[in-house]
Prior knowledge:
CATH class of the largest domain: Mainly Alpha
Number of helices: 15
CATH topology of the largest domain: ABC transporter involved in vitamin B12 uptake, BtuC
Structural class: mainly alpha
Number of strands: 4
Strand content: under 5%
Strand order of the largest sheet: 1-2
CATH architecture of the largest domain: Orthogonal Bundle
Distance between the termini: 41 Å
Helix content: 55-70%
Number of domains: 2
Largest sheet: 2 strands, antiparallel
Order of helices and strands: HHEEHHHHHHEHHHHEHHH
Amino acid sequence: MYQLMYRLKKEGKSILMISEELPELIGMSDRILIMKDGQIQDSFTRSEELNEICINQEDGLGGGIKVKEKAKAKEILQKIIPFLGIILMIIIFQVGGEGKLLTKGNINSILNQTVYIAIMAFGAIFVYSHGGMDLSYGGVIGFSVLVAILVANTGVPAGVVFITNILAALVWFVLNGVVSVYLQVSPFITSLCIMYMCRGILNTVCASQKYSIPVELFEFDNQKFKLGMLLGVFIICYILFEKTAIGKDNKAIGGNPAAAKQAGVNVNRTRMIAYIISGITVGIAGFILMARAGSVSTSTGQGMEMNVVTALVLGGVPLSGGSKVKMIGAVVGSFSVILLRNGLIILGVNERVVEGIQGLVLLLLVFLTYVKNKDGVLE
């Protein structure tokens, strides 16, 4: 039936569809009219922000209160909160740290750490936008650095090492996608297993020997190259996520998988593409991390999965996915999580305690996201 409707639509014909199923209407309709007691109560046009909560609140089913202006104001507030958080952290850490935060050396340190977290977050947002989950980032980036260094020491050109980083990461993300998407194993379990497998390989290979990069690869540890890669990856991911069907379909799946499928989205293929993109960005980040660190050890990449997830949440990305996921959130969140860690260390907080605080912040933000999704609006 849905394929027939789409064919008729492409032929320029108008279709009147009557249904009580909101997910179906949202997925299929360009315009929705709400009728009650023989009268049109409200109307809605297709948009990324349209969902069941909006319609229920607007048409009186959720209490009969018109909340358009209030919802718009809250939407604007939610967009600027991450930026206000950055400003607040800068003020607190700069004053509390006696001016150490904004020194040239510390700013460079923040940028260096932000680059590979942000690049991984750009890819991760594709996975999380469809409601997926991945906790393998730290283990996979460590594995990709190990493989790339072993290859680099055979004397191959830097370009081959770069591609090796990407392929080494991509293998694990393809495996993650196949098991999660096609075998329908929980992505949480799958990615956790992959993280432990990669970490186990690192611990085994690097336990008794240190592997370092050839001297010529250190030339890639410069701000011009790193910022160029950051900007290039962001532009490509932004276009794919915000301007093409890849991003729109992933967000549609996150909003309502059944409605997305009814609307003609190939759900499994779209999810698989998300994992592939994420794997490529992890490989790129691995090359930058490799040039920065100069070697690989058992601790390479450790804890980065937490940084990536925290970055997404701090950037306002709902872990449930959907239309509210925006690429700019990955940028803001990545800078925020590194700024938070850096600022706390400047204040003299022990690094292990910093990790605990980061976990607490993540838990709080996830809870607030849950409350928002449960009640419709966050009071």
